[in-house]
Design brief:
heterodimer, A: alpha+beta, Dna Ligase, domain 1, 2 domains, five-stranded mixed beta sheet, 14 helices, globular, B: alpha+beta, Immunoglobulin-like, five-stranded antiparallel beta sheet, four-stranded antiparallel beta sheet, 12 strands, 34% strand
């Protein structure tokens, strides 16, 4: 790769240490290499005991793997965080207003600010949601915004993830592990807590219970089952907030209300944190062949007898083609300038832009409009000639199926590697809860590309995680 | 014209079915061309069924049976007064956002050639409603020319025609929808469940077109339900989903007597 200058979150260009990292840098320097090695080994023991694994699709070997963990935390100053927080809050507010509008009057389309076709013909748009009024007008309650940093003040949102974002269990377990591993560091630095997340999740879910629900709402987590890559997280979150973990066949709908089968008889359910995709929620309304869902669930939702979190049809607001309109969406609903930037995105259906893209593939990133998890993408600078030729064909055949962005110079953080401490590229997924109020957990999940020079942080593609420390004033 | 309808459906569930659930879209609404005088759906579970307006403006019932031992029988009976409104249905109280009916689905993929010919007619100055008639005539001609008349059951032909019609109009950005309903036929032939289409005009509202018969619905038509396509307007959707292609598992016996009483 070319000698690009990347923003290092710990070190200035002249080698001096950036403010937020001062105490951490001293600590790291005072550690003999063997001590860090020991910490890494201890961390692995902890994670094995906790049983955190994730499934990798498409690999034959062991399907369950331990996600790699780096013992050097990432540090974000209180000031930096305040700005990020504001920007995230602005975005999730605007996107929830956008969803309400799309499923009601569609003022933004009438105003000519977003093409009708992009919405009406979009797979992620859910016609069945038209005219429904979810409690508090909230569609996406649980959000994981993917953010990358390219400079001291430059933050870009890569994806908004408004459907069923995962990863929050890693954030919580990473923190727990760090508190075991380096308790002394938590005395030296005032790190904002993340362990309140499960409690906040519960509060958020309770706050969006149906109006008809009297008393304390009964909350369940609905999982597709043990073969899902995030099953661990489903059971972990249910456990942490004291909710029941269930599968579709544990629930049924009677008289428009949802019940859970229990040994003591049917128990009414008020709020469902569902980790099943829209299509599979209810075979009567969505895919008739779904074995994972609950027949009549959507009818119970429509009748206001149960709340689905997140609501069906939120995917239209994090669709990769709609993404390019988010700055306009923020201006339209809030009358504000976006605080966080969007990554400039090329539209391959435009002849000029496509020509530019095909001429410069080696410097660009190509993503499938409906892809996720780092599958089906091309990272130009790391690609082979053959791969670029393949993508040239793909883009020519279906230009609307791809979005293309410049390769971002992702910031780096000090990371413990076989060769000692070295900079590795990172991104950040803060977790947002939207209910009676907007709650953003300080920090989030930092994903790190462990391979030298790699810009792909997805755990399915050799990425790891590290704890994220937001400093308090 | 007063039309009475009796429609009987039977489903045989697999043995040991613990629970069966259905969406029933079998309640017609009043339009410019029809007024519902009497209507009833008789089936197990109906007394405690929930009803709601679905995403496409239909009145739907959610019906449940525990241990449906002898299968499921549905009897729909009703009386509807109709008049000839030259196919104009108008605006309906429960109509959702009209733009929704521009959405293409798996069953409504526009034929590029047909869309291009429509565009050419549009360019040549054909008005919106004329364009709809032009399209209906072309589909009918194409069908006549193909000479496949007796090959396929008449219901399938009607459904296909309605899909092609709807998809082509959506292809030129005109909202259009799929309709199911009853049609009174000649005295010697039994009535049947039929499928046709409706297209949107800003001044007239919805206008019905029956491309398989090459006419706009007359007073012989009773409109039942509508949707993006056959799948979303199907009169009965069931879980467990019975394999419709398998005649042994599915038994739908329709007994319909439609007669004029006026």
């Amino acid at each position: 790769m070319s000698e690009k200058k990347y923003f290092d979150e710990m070190l200035n260009a002249d080698g001096s240490v950036r403010d937020p990292y001062r105490i951490l840098a001293d600590w790291v320097q005072s550690q003999p290499k063997t001590a860090l090695k020991q910490l890494a080994a201890d961390a692995e023991t902890i994670f094995r005991r906790l049983g955190i694994t994730f499934a990798v699709y498409g690999s034959n070997e062991s399907t369950e793997r331990l996600i790699p963990f780096d013992v050097i935390p990432r540090v974000i100053s209180a000031n930096e965080w305040r700005r990020l927080e504001k920007g995230i809050e602005q975005r999730v507010k605007a996107l929830n207003m956008f969803l309400f509008d799309l499923y009601h009057n569609q003022d933004i389309i009438r105003a000519g600010r977003i093409p009708e076709k992009l919405i009406i013909q979009n797979e992620a748009f859910c016609p069945h949601m038209m005219g429904l009024n979810p409690p508090r007008g909230i569609y996406s309650h649980i959000i994981g915004v993917d953010i990358v940093r390219t400079g001291p003040d430059d933050f870009y949102v890569l994806e908004d993830n408004l459907r069923t974002p995962s990863g929050v269990s890693y954030m919580l377990e990473d923190r727990e592990a760090m508190m075991h591993l380096v308790p002394d560091l938590f005395h030296k630095l005032k790190v904002a807590p993340v362990e309140t997340y499960p409690e906040n999740l519960r509060r958020t879910l309770e706050s969006v219970a149906p109006d008809s629900c009297a008393g304390s709402p009964n909350i369940v987590v609905l999982t597709p089952g043990i073969y899902n890559s995030a099953y661990f997280e489903h059971s972990f979150l249910a456990d942490q907030m004291g909710a029941t973990l269930c599968e579709g066949h544990d629930l049924f709908v009677d008289n428009g209300k949802v019940y859970m089968r229990t040994t003591l008889g049917p128990e009414r359910v008020d709020v469902i944190y569902r980790r099943i995709d829209d299509d599979f929620l209810d075979p009567l309304t969505f895919r008739p062949d779904s074995m994972l869902g609950v027949p009549g669930l959507f009818d119970a939702y429509r009748a206001g007898n149960v709340t689905l979190v997140n609501a069906p049809g939120t995917g239209i607001a994090d669709d990769k083609a709609v993404y390019t309109y988010v700055p306009q969406i923020i201006e339209f609903y809030l009358g504000e300038k976006p605080i966080l930037k969007n990554v400039p995105t090329y539209n391959c259906t435009n002849v000029d832009e496509r020509a530019y893209v095909l001429d410069n593939l080696a410097e660009l990133v190509v993503k499938e409009v409906h892809g996720s998890g780092g599958y089906g993408m091309l990272v130009g600078p790391a690609s082979t000639k053959k791969q670029r030729a393949e993508f040239t064909e793909k883009i020519r055949a279906r230009p609307d199926n791809y979005i293309v962005q410049p390769t971002l110079a992702l910031s780096t953080c000090p990371t413990f590697t076989n060769a000692g401490i070295a900079p590795r590229h990172v991104d950040l997924r803060p977790f947002v809860l939207v209910g009676d109020q907007i709650r953003i957990t300080p920090g989030g999940l930092t994903r790190v590309a462990l391979k030298r020079g790699s810009l792909v942080v997805n755990s399915s593609q050799g990425g790891g995680t590290k704890d994220t420390w937001v400093l308090e004033d | 014209m007063r039309i009475s309808i009796r429609h009987e459906l039977r489903y045989a569930f697999p043995e040991d079915t613990a629970r069966a659930v259905q969406h029933v879209l079998m309640t017609p609404c009043d339009t410019k061309g029809q007024k519902v005088i009497e209507w009833s759906i008789d089936m197990p579970g109906m007394e405690s069924a929930e009803h709601f307006t679905d995403a496409f403006g239909n009145l739907a019932h959610l019906v449940t049976q525990s241990r449906p031992e002898n299968g499921l029988g549905i009897l729909v009976t009703g009386i509807v007064d109709t008049s000839d409104a030259s196919g104009v249905v108008g605006r309906l109280d429960n109509d959702p956002n009209i733009a929704l009916f521009k959405r293409l689905t798996g069953q409504t993929r526009p034929n590029g050639n047909l869309v291009n010919r429509l565009k050419a007619q549009q360019k040549a100055g054909l008005g919106r409603v004329e364009l709809m008639h032009w399209l209906m005539n072309r589909l009918h001609e194409a069908h006549e020319a193909s000479g496949e008349e007796d090959e396929e059951p008449v219901e399938i032909v009607a459904e296909d025609h309605a899909h092609v019609f709807v998809a082509a109009l959506r292809g030129i950005d005109i909202p259009a929808r799929f309709v199911t309903g009853y049609v009174l036929e000649a005295q010697d032939k039994p009535a049947r469940l039929h499928a046709w289409a409706e297209a949107w005009d800003d001044s007239l509202g919805w206008i019905g077109f029956d491309p398989s018969a090459n006419l706009c619905p007359t007073e012989a038509y009773v409109r039942l339900a509508t949707g993006l396509d056959a799948e979303t307007s199907t009169p009965v959707r069931l879980v467990p989903d019975l394999p419709r292609e398998n005649d042994d598992a599915i038994r739908v016996a329709q007994v319909m007597m439609a007669n004029q009483q006026q």
